[in-house]
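Minimal example, chain plus uridine-diphosphate-N-acetylglucosamine.
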Amino acid sequence: MKDTAVIIMAAGKGKRMKSNLPKVLHNLAGKPILNYVLETIDQLNANRKIIVVGYKSEKIKELIGDEIEYAEQVEQLGTAHAVLQTKKLLSDFKGEVLILSGDVPFLTINTLKGLLKYHKDNKFSCTLISTILENPHGYGRIIRDKEGEIEGIIEEVELPEDKKGINEINTGIYCFNKESLFQTLEKIVPDNKQGEYYLTDTVEILLKDGLNIGNIMVKDYSEVLGINTRVDLANASQKVYQRVRKHLMLQGVTIIDPNSTFIDEGIEIGEDTVIYPFTIIEKDSKIGKGCHIGPYSHLIDARIGKGVKVWASTIEDSSIEEGANIGPYAHLRPGTIIKKGAKIGNFVEVKKTVVGEASKASHLTYLGDAVIGKRVNIGAGTITCNYDGKKKNRTIIEDEVFVGSNNSLVAPVKLGKASYTGAGSTITEDVPPGNLAIARSKQKNIKGWSKRKKKSKK
Ligand code: UD1
Ligand code: CA
């Protein structure tokens, strides 16, 4: 849409969040609040998109990048002042301006398109979205005359006693004709309790100037809820998680206890996968069909194939292929690849390591910076000593190797194909294919020792 500009107000600190982080960057079920708004307006094909930034603007710019324009509001003097900061950027622009808040994440594209169309069709100078709230506390209220025509908007703090009962609220989402918008903004004065330039004052001024105001009332108020406090944030998160779980269940995923399961939006999970209670699945994770995930599992950027079992384990930025078995109490750290049918068992930590097809590390092991072939058995208590205090070194374990229990594999080191190591070995040199390496001191048995000990005690 060539004649449409979108302004997102996001300069405020978000005082009510009581936080160091700008409000719009707070995490809402896996991504910053602001990203929800940006993803919605991406579907609008507006030719100008501007974010008004102020408080910690560098943090916002760093996250969003330069796909969007920025207007700096150095001092946060109010919403009208925020919009005014885009004046220069929009000096050559002609058309309609949509104004959104960075803290209203669930606005849908349909509502936005509806707003724009209604506004244009009727040639309004401003069209605003309102809704009815059971508890309107905190919002600006829509004031109507006897005929039901909009007269103005009064902010919560300015609201006289007799108007506190009004439950039609201003959602903070508007469409303005650009010329009327900027002409009006210049006329706004901060003569209110907060000493702020209120964008909501535009309504009264436009009406005084004899211009028309339009209004759309959305039925589903949850679409236009603003996030002001951490309580709002938690409620909004629950809403997203609920929506995601419902979607996945309808796609054929069993979620045993929806209330204790948290899955970020956009994560794909295959049919007949069962998610057990107390499981969190985050970021760019993807899970195949017929898996069993949880209970008590935490997956972050985990890519999981078909028929995989993950039980009470943590997986970060790792791939697990078909039929592999993980846990309980395993920790797969970034850069790990577990191939088809492999097994990573109790209390095993794996980092930046490839574990080949059908290989097993079933108990109490650390595998770091290693490449492990097929059908390898890693005995209980094996440790790759990958760090020499300066750099990380590789361990290579070829196909069909049998590593005895309680081995220290001092990297860099290579265990050749089908070689064996004795239990308790400290392997410091390469083992040629097919060899048995025993690297421990030889056992000495001392005859009659216990009898002698007893005697000497007497
Ligand atoms: C605003 C509206 C209120 C409406 C509510 C809906 C005004 C005066 N009030 O109130 O009628 O019911 O939204 O959610 O507009 N911001 C800036 N610069 C500033 C001040 C704010 O960029 O100087 C940004 C904030 O970062 C935020 C948005 O504008 O993203 C809204 O500001 P906020 O302080 O949350 O306004 P509300 O009090 O919620
Ligand atoms: Ca707000």
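The chain has a mean pLDDT of 97. The two ends are 101 Å apart (CA to CA).
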